[in-house]
Design a protein that fits this description.
Elements: H1 2-5, H2 12-34, H3 44-61
Helix pairs in contact: 2-3
């Protein structure tokens, strides 16, 4: 039981990745909703760069990068 409390027996890394992906997907949905049906130009590289660096940062230091734009 003690080892389980520290994350053994669970896939913490997978959980963090999925949580971060869900967070970014919600932000993307919000961006589309705020655009009111107008054409939206999105650079997928910046989206995935932010997603990947945020996942790494969250695993290493415990918090995500916020999109300041």
């Amino acid at each position: 039981r003690t080892l389980r409390d520290f994350g053994f027996g669970r896939n913490i890394m997978q959980q963090r990745i999925l949580e971060e992906f869900d967070y970014r997907a919600e932000r993307l949905d919000k961006l589309f909703d705020e655009n009111d049906g107008k054409q939206l130009i999105l650079d997928p590289r910046s989206f995935f760069d932010l997603l990947i660096t945020s996942i790494i940062n969250r695993i290493l230091v415990g918090y995500r990068y916020d999109d300041v734009r």
